[in-house]
Write a structure and sequence with these properties.
Two copies of one chain form a homodimer. By secondary structure, the first copy, chain A, is α+β, with helices and mostly antiparallel strands. Chain A folds into three domains: about 280 residues, Butyryl-CoA Dehydrogenase, subunit A, domain 2; about 150 residues, Butyryl-CoA Dehydrogenase, subunit A, domain 3 (Up-down Bundle); about 130 residues. In chain A, about 55% of the residues lie in helices and about 10% in strands. The first copy, chain A, is built from 22 helices and eleven strands. In chain A, strands 3, 4, 5, 6, 7, 10 and 11 form a seven-stranded mixed β-sheet that branches. In chain A, helix 13 packs antiparallel against helix 15. The model of chain A has no long low-confidence stretch (mean pLDDT about 95). At the A-B interface, helix 12, helix 13, helix 14, helix 15 and helix 16 of A face helix 12, helix 13, helix 14, helix 15 and helix 16 of B.
Chain lengths: ~600, ~600
């Protein structure tokens, strides 16, 4: 199996040549002293070293071994404990966390690159610190000072990890009907009772304490999503000096046997009157959880990207090395038994589809990361608001489109290896299995699509779409003769997206089901149009950059490939959207 | 997990109402005494009973357990031995085999339905008898009478199984470069030496002998595919009376650890001077193997169909039962905590996409099966030839399109269950893993596409496409007002297919790489157009049938769904085909 190599050149290209993030950072008081281009390069170099040499080489063995569960105790695969200790020692767990509690406080556009490397190295392993980062952010935004002072320093340092406990056996998507109860204790704490499932990192042996953030209902809770509160429930109670006290009655009842991410402990967690503390306001728990959702969802999108990037590295090395058959043109190597796979058009089609989705996705997540940073750090309130709108619009696209195209990419990566891609030995099938979960958790991709079309686009009467269309149309002014055809296609695509959106808005009043019937196709349409824009941006930026000729030509030609071979998929999506809900809702249950 | 239920009503509908196979059978001397509608119904009922009650219930446990390998010995999962004995006792191993040697000799259009049931019940298990059937057919067509008399009765009865040994460590697709040697012995037999990999059922404990059909090179063999011969190499040598003699030195060196089909023994087979006998002419081995390829490839396509059908059964049961959220319209069940999943448009979209691919695929494989039967049994030479052309054209489509859409369907089926689809407990992720191999083995889907576009369409200068276009256009004469829009779309699609084909033919001379660059998209185009035709045929046949209203309405509405939501995908394929090879071959290796 080819060794993992982080896409450092492409990442630096995006940060510097495409998105000019240094200009942003210079203008932001919170960042201007902290990070510049050189720091960013140094950080990415370190992240590459860590993931390439420490984490990636163990991913397949960890997948084979999986986690072990016995009597409530989870043992992680050989090597994970040492890996996590090194990760923590390097400060990587708190890469995006508040510096007040020891975090690095890096901008998202930068830490997104680190996250990709972590996922490309080992998705299972990345989840232990990834979920912790989410818990840190939630607590930082909504916890009391007392809770923050006690927990955040040790979570940020990676001494303790965190979880998110939402799903229950009877509900995942529909959190309004959760049954876990929180009853007030005399001392201001609460006693939590209930069962949570699918809890990533719910129990493990990497660190000495685990901090669960748990959704539960207070005794006086109103029904539905407006009656959900958020609680912090540690595995071990924590004394005032930060030392560990009694074991809290929250136990892993079992672990799930899954299609993939075998080295990630997915636990059933039983809360048997466990002591917890309220985080944020009563009954406002779901809102508190959602504040970190934009970050987490981008992170899950990046899992799709990371899986695809790793799979591409393996597939490309194989296609260059493996000899099978002859190309259609006269061979360059008549003395060899056969030509390398790369002479075959269909192998190129699959590799380039992967490359177009990976580098397009890397650009997309960087763009969304940049907007997250602007929403948080920009000086100007108007700029913050505009960035916030872009984040709101594009986060569900990042989560769903990057994982849907990620799965397609890993399937191509497996197919390129033929039978060798199906056997575990080559490590290629793991990326299909590990990528697949990213389409499901953190809100299924169908739910992301509903969020995009229902809450965001229709909910704003189309207003949230405007900043994206503006950005695209502003870019159209850079039109050049060399790229006339692509600029025209981009303009056309943006117009089509706007027209389709208006069409849906016009039909909402008369058709309740239009949104839930066409949302997934609509999300893909936004994805393809956004990637087209970013591909053309990248191609133009590459042309005027100082990178190697191979890098520049690779960018330019992949942009051409994207417009010729992948963008046409919107012509399948648009008629399906226009067909609306009728063909779905004419069926009675018996007719399925 | 929902229990497996064979789609008997749909199968009978296809045989009787859509394809009127009884008319064919009546006109064919080899079949007219053997099978009629009543026999066919009885056979399918028995097959359903067998697969539903004996095989399907063990599939998940067998997947969990997998096969065991130790010192060259393969042990199959608990229950497989008994299952295989019952299968053999019922005559099912020889379902399509020559009656002269004890086979049932059923027409393919009928046995294809049985094969779907076997795959939907357990793909791993189905392979042991499926490969045996392929070996039986090859031997029957090409073996000497002596070999046939000695081996066929016991293979047909299921006392012994068979394998196909093609792939070697350095070559799978490119069989011209195999290295296994066959050296003549004094007694007319041969000594075979070499290593074969990915041998399905190469070693196991289900029966007492295994008959390997092996590709190897004679000492005087010309280079390339014209120097390959076919040999029969039994695990145990067979005495003249059929009793077993010495152990032949052909041993399993190891078994593969795979993404799926865990209960199928995929073996590395070492031939250490093993005794074998020539099957067919020297150096004509590949041709001999290919005669059974059309049957085998249709069988692999049916694996995609079977996986999708089983996944659909589980997903539909879940969508009817699981309550999560509320539909967009006022609920019918205000007293329940939530509505069933089926109220959600996106769940319906996924279920109906599955249904459209499954029932479309069942119709397609039945159509190809009918043509296989006509090619073999029709009285009229012209009819045989025409059927043969349709088989040649559509077999690669059946193999690749039914498995590509099969994978899409199983992924939808998994997605409908959310997180529960990702954990193994519900059994839904197994169908994704097990379906995935069908896109790879028996010639990858990329190879199928090359076969379709290169050898079949371009190779015949488009002539092989004509019988299909004729069948479609003949059907257009049944146009009715109710279906005006769909008939128009079908006519348009067929015209587009013809135009695109002509366009490619016109470009072949100047562009060597056009075929290998657009073949996969072209195959999908043929698939969607064919399914559109069959969906409209089914809808029209259903309207005038005696089936239940729910069945008829299900057909009619799914046809409408297919035209509205899935057929538009051709508008993504056509521009990608028209873009040709340029965007793929402009890249140097360094630019990937």
């Amino acid at each position: 199996m080819a060794e993992y190599r982080a896409a450092l050149q492409d990442m630096n290209f995006l940060l510097e040549d495409v998105f000019a993030v240094a200009q942003d950072w210079q203008s932001m008081p919170a960042l201007q002293e902290m990070v510049d281009v050189d720091t960013a390069r140094a950080i990415l170099d370190e992240a590459a070293k860590l993931t390439e040499t420490l984490i990636a080489p163990n991913a397949r063995a960890a997948d084979e071994e999986g986690i072990h569960f016995s009597d409530g105790v989870v043992t992680t695969p050989v090597g994970y404990k040492e890996q996590f200790a090194e990760l923590a020692a390097g400060g990587w767990v708190g890469v995006g966390a508040n510096p007040e509690y020891g975090g690095m406080g890096l901008p998202k556009v930068l830490s997104a690159q680190y996250e990709e490397m972590m996922c490309a190295a080992d998705i299972s392993f990345s989840l232990y610190s990834g979920l912790t980062a989410g818990a840190i952010m939630t607590l930082d935004l909504h916890g009391s000072d007392a809770l923050k002072d006690l927990y955040l320093p040790r979570m940020t340092s990676g001494e303790w990890t965190g979880t998110m406990c939402l799903t229950e056996p009877h509900c995942g998507t529909d959190l309004g009907i959760i049954r876990t109860k929180a009853v007030p204790n005399a001392d201001g704490s609460f006693a939590l009772t209930g069962t949570k499932i699918f809890i990533t990192g719910g129990e493990h042996d990497l660190v000495e304490n685990i901090v669960h953030l748990v959704l539960a209902k207070l005794p006086d809770a109103p029904a539905g999503t407006k009656g959900i509160s958020l609680f912090l429930v540690p595995k071990f109670l924590v004394n005032e000096d930060g030392s560990l006290g009694e074991r809290n009655p929250v136990f892993a009842g079992s672990t799930e046997h899954k299609m993939g991410i075998h080295a990630s402990a997915t636990c059933v967690m039983n809360f048997d009157g466990a002591t917890g503390w309220l985080v944020g306001e009563p009954h406002r728990g779901l809102a508190a959880m959602f504040t970190m959702m934009n970050y987490e969802r981008l992170g899950v999108g990046i899992q799709g990207l990371g899986a695809a990037a790793r799979s591409y590295g393996i597939a490309l090395a194989y296609a260059l090395d493996r000899r099978q058959g002859r190309g259609a043109k006269a061979t360059q190597e008549p003395s060899a038994e056969a030509d390398p796979l790369l002479v075959h058009g269909d192998i190129r089609r699959m590799l380039l589809t992967m490359k177009a989705f990976i580098e397009g996705g890397r650009a997309f997540s960087s763009y969304v990361g940049q907007q997250l940073d602007r929403a948080k750090f920009a000086n100007d309130a108007g700029e913050r608001e505009r960035a916030d709108q872009l984040v709101a619009l594009l986060t569900p696209v990042a989560k769903a489109f990057m994982t849907d195209t990620g799965l397609e990419a890993t399937i191509h990566g497996q197919q390129i290896l033929g039978g060798h891609g199906y056997v575990r030995e080559w490590g290629q099938e793991q990326w299909v299995r590990d990528c697949r979960i990213a389409q499901i958790y953190e809100g299924t991709n169908g739910i992301q699509a509903l969020d995009l079309l229902g809450r965001k686009v229709v909910g704003s009467r189309g207003q949230l779409l405007q900043p994206l269309l503006e950005d695209i149309r502003e870019f159209l002014a850079t039109r050049s003769d060399d790229w006339a055809a692509e600029y025209e296609l981009l303009e056309e695509s943006a117009d089509l997206l706007e027209d389709v959106s208006k069409d849906i808005l016009g039909r909402v009043a008369e058709d309740e089901n239009i949104i839930n019937s066409v949302a997934v196709e609509y999300l893909h349409l936004v994805g393809y149009v956004s990637y087209a824009w970013l591909w053309l941006r990248m191609a133009r930026a590459a042309e005027s950059s100082q990178h190697s000729a191979a890098f520049i030509q690779g960018k330019v030609k992949t942009a051409k490939f994207f417009f010729a071979k992948l963008l046409p998929r919107i012509h399948a999506l648009i008629p399906a959207i226009e067909a609306g809900s009728e063909e779905l809702f004419s069926f009675t249950p018996e007719e399925f």
